[in-house]
Structure to design on (125 residues):
């Protein structure tokens, strides 16, 4: 078991160590010491990222498109998970809102936190 004492992440090196440790314990069983450490790391990593990275606010559809690009996915790949190519197309073109079911499936597929996908955005009229 790793005996690292975690403190606020101050450097890129601290951040990289925290990310590496998180990756090694991300499947830890609930209630275990590793699970508690994982929760702490999530918090520390988020604090560091929020402080260091001034990311612009983007709407959920932009986030989905960016993530699709990162992963080399196409709308048809989303449709294969969601099951309806027409609805996926409408959503990606701002003609229809994301449904709760889509948010759940896309969050899992694209590894996007649900809280990023539930943000409000405008449709194109």
């Amino acid at each position: 078991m790793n005996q690292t004492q975690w403190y606020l992440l101050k450097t890129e090196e601290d951040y990289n160590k925290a990310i590496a440790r998180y990756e090694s314990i991300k499947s830890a069983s609930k209630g275990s010491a590793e699970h508690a450490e994982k929760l702490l790391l999530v918090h520390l990593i988020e604090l560091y990222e929020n402080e260091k990275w001034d990311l612009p606010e983007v709407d959920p559809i932009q986030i989905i498109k960016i993530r699709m690009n990162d992963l080399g996915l196409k709308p048809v790949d989303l449709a294969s998970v969601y099951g309806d190519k027409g609805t996926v197309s409408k959503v990606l073109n701002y003609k229809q809102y994301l449904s709760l079911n889509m948010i759940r499936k896309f969050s899992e597929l694209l590894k996007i936190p649900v809280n990023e996908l539930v943000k409000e955005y405008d449709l194109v009229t």
In short: Residues 33-52 form the longest helix (20 residues). Helices lie at 12-25, 33-52, 60-71, 75-82, 85-92, 100-110, 114-117. The CA atoms of residues 107 and 115 lie 9 Å apart. Residues 60-117 form a domain with the 434 Repressor (Amino-terminal Domain) fold (CATH 1.10.260.40).
